[in-house]
Amino acid sequence: MLIFVFFIIVSFVFYFYYKTKQFRATLPIRKKWYASVASVALGSFVMFFGINQLFLFQSTLTYVISGIFIVLGLGLIVYNYKAAKHYHSFVDEETRLNQ
């Protein structure tokens, strides 16, 4: 399944991109926002990896481990999406106050 491999690679690239943006940011709320967005990308990486494993191997152990990866990835995506949305509302205000 090349489409899942593509999504795995793209999500890892976004994770790496936002993690480096987090390390280079100087404002604390912006750092938290970048960390949350990076964690969303990490969650999508874990979820797509679990889905890809379902198609590659068909065994009971693979189904259990892939299910854990998918649930963990979805949990990371949902939690950090809410956190990123929360921090995003303060990013503009923080930038304006620190100019």
UniProtKB/TrEMBL annotation:
Protein name, UniProt field: YtpI family protein
TM stretches of this protein: 6-21, 33-55, 61-81
Entry keyword set: Membrane, Transmembrane, Transmembrane helix
Organism: Planococcus salinus
Biological classification of the source: Bacteria, Bacillati, Bacillota, Bacilli, Bacillales
Pfam families per record: YtpI
Cited InterPro entries: YtpI
